[in-house]
Structure formats: C-alpha cells, structure tokens
Amino acid sequence: MLDAFLVRAALAGVGVALAAAPLGCFVVWRRMAYFGDATAHAAILGVALALALSWSVFLGALLVALAMAATVSGLGHRGLAMDTLLGVLAHSALAVGLVAASFLSGVRVDLMAYLFGEILAVGWADLAVIWGGVALVLVLFLWRWPALLMATLNGDLARAAGVDPRREQMVLTLALAVVVAVAIKVVGVLLIGALLVIPAATARPFSRTPEGMALLAAGVGVFSALAGLAAAFRFDTPTGPTMVCVAAACFALSAVAGGIRRGAAGARG
Q1: I need a labelling partner for 18 at 20 to 30 A (CA). Which of 4, 8, 27, 131 fits?
Q2: Is residue 162 part of a domain?
Q3: Total domain count for the chain?
Q4: Cβ atoms within 10 A of the Cβ of 107, count?
Q5: Closest Cα to residue 196, out of 244, 149, 267, 238?
Q6: pLDDT at residue 11 above 70?
Q7: Phi-psi group of 31: left, alpha or beta (phi > 0 → left; psi -120 to 50 → alpha; rest → beta)
Q8: Number of C-beta neighbours around residue 10 at 10 A
Q9: 41 is in which domain, residue-wise?
Q10: What is the mean pLDDT of residues 74-86?
Q11: What does the buried/exposed string (b/e) look like for 147-175 if buried means 16 or more CB atoms within 10 Å of the residue's CB?
C-alpha cells in the first residue's frame, strides 16, 4: 500500500512537471508570470463551482481557468495596464473562490489541499486525468511549436509568414488552463505559478536553443518533483511546497553557476 501511493504521487509529479516545462518556457519568454498566477488563482472558484454542482473538480477548474484566461486576453487589448489588471483579477478571483467555498453546505471542503496540493492523496482515477491532460498539452505543443515560437519572437514576422499571433495566444491559453486544472491536486493553486516559472528560469542560462531550454526545464521539473517528494516523505513536510523549495534551490544554484561562468568568460575576454 505504501509503495502504491508513493508511485502514484511520483507519477503525478512527473506528469505535471512534463506538461509545465514547455508552457513555463513561453511564460518566461513572454513575461506572462502574472498571467499564470491569475489563471491559477481563479481555479479555486472553479473548485467551489464543481463541488456545488457535483461536477468533477478538474472540469470546474478547467472551465473557470479558461474563462479567466480569455477575460485577461480580451481586457488586455483595451488599453488597461496589464500588471494592474492581473493583480486585480488574480486576487479577486481567489477571494471570491474562497468565499464561495465557505457557503457550500453539506460539503466538506479541505481548502488547504486545494491551495497547496495534496499529491499523496492522488488516486488512479486522478492519475488518469492528470496524464490525459499532460498528453493533450504535449501534443498541442508538438503540433504548434514552430508557430508558437514565431509568434513569441516577432508578431509582425509571424503575420507575414501566415501565422496569427492571436490564435497562438489562445493555444497558450488553452494549455495554461489544462496545466492549472491538472496541477491543483499536486501543488495547489497558490504554487502552480512557481512550478511553471522556476524550472524554465533555471534552464534559461544553460540553453542555446528553445527546444534545449524546454527539455532542460522538463528535467529540472521532474527532478524537483521526485526530490521534493522524497524530502517531504523523509522530513514529514508539505509535499507541494517542498517540491517548489527544491526547484528554488536549483534556481539558486543555476544563478550562481551562471554568474561564475559569465565571470570566467569575461576574464578570458
């Protein structure tokens, strides 16, 4: 029994890390960290909606995350300051979700599990949903990778090549909503943004190509998930936050190593 729940937890962590890696790279390249946070925070409202209507939590979180991402994308083109807009929507959605959850009568809601994750409680059905979402995100990126890169690097060049940047933005929006929905059980809505940004930021100084950065970010994410799970089991700490702590330690080591390498290159020059 012990081995079974650890295997399920490890598979869940690895799956979310693999899905978050390519998306995290685009989040870093496009400076969309606040966008990811707003979408993730809104998912708690989806959880409350799903529990109230007896839906799947995955479905509720996915629908609300999609709605939030579409709202941000639409309002962002109306001249509103994006950082202010994201700050208002992110915290408002989180607050509304928490208040809505408090009104649920006859339903036991473990808010800590949704805020910070409960990976050790992942069942085989949860694992099937997680890996189904992971497969969807990976297929989406394999299909749209060249167009997404072109739209990210230069919107005018993309349009000249027949690529619609708005369409590629919607692809990223869909991928972000799916990752948020499948990651709730693993790291919770408050830490999903960290799982997106930190592995990609760790990989960036050591990558020469976008594909290399995505692969290295996936490696950092998988290592953080497995090492965080092992450390949490060993020291009896919260699993989701421990995974993020391992990722943060990797980023710190990456920053130090990158600084040393740049200093050595400057000395040779």
Answers
A1: 4
A2: yes
A3: 1
A4: 11
A5: 244
A6: yes
A7: left
A8: 17
A9: 2-189
A10: 66
A11: bbbbbbeebeebeeeebebeebbebbbbb
Check if the beta carbon of residue 250 is closer than 8 Å to that of residue 220. Answer: yes
Query: Mean pLDDT, the chain, as a whole number?
Result: 86
**Nearest one of 168, 185, 170, 167 to 61, comparing CA atoms:** 185
In a domain, 210, yes or no: no
DSSP class per residue in 108-161: ---HHHHHH--GGG--HHHHHHHHHHHHHHHHHHHHHHHHHHHHHH-HHHHHHT
Record the tokens describing residue 99, joined without a space.
Answer: 């208040």
| Region 129-150 average pLDDT | 93
pLDDT on residue 1: 47
The CATH number of residue 60's host domain is 1.10.3470.10
Q: If you search the block for the tokens 């890169």, which residue do you land on?
A: 149
Of 9-13, 54-58, 112-116, 162-166, the range with the highest mean pLDDT is 9-13
Q: How far apart are the first and last CA of the chain?
A: 58
DSSP the chain: -HHHHHHHHHHHHHHHHHHHHHHHHHHHHTT-HHHHHHHHHHHHHHHHHHHHHT--HHHHHHHHHHHHHHHHHHHHTTT--HHHHHHHHHHHHHHHHHHHHHT-SS----HHHHHH--GGG--HHHHHHHHHHHHHHHHHHHHHHHHHHHHHH-HHHHHHTT--HHHHHHHHHHHHHHHHHHHHHHH-TTTHHHHHHHHHHHHGGG-SSHHHHHHHHHHHHHHHHHHHHHHHHHHT--HHHHHHHHHHHHHHHHHHHHHHHHHHHHHH-
User: What pLDDT, in 10s, does the model give residues 175-233?
Assistant: 988 999 899 888 888 889 899 999 999 999 888 899 999 999 999 999 999 999 999 98
As a residue count, the chain comes to 269
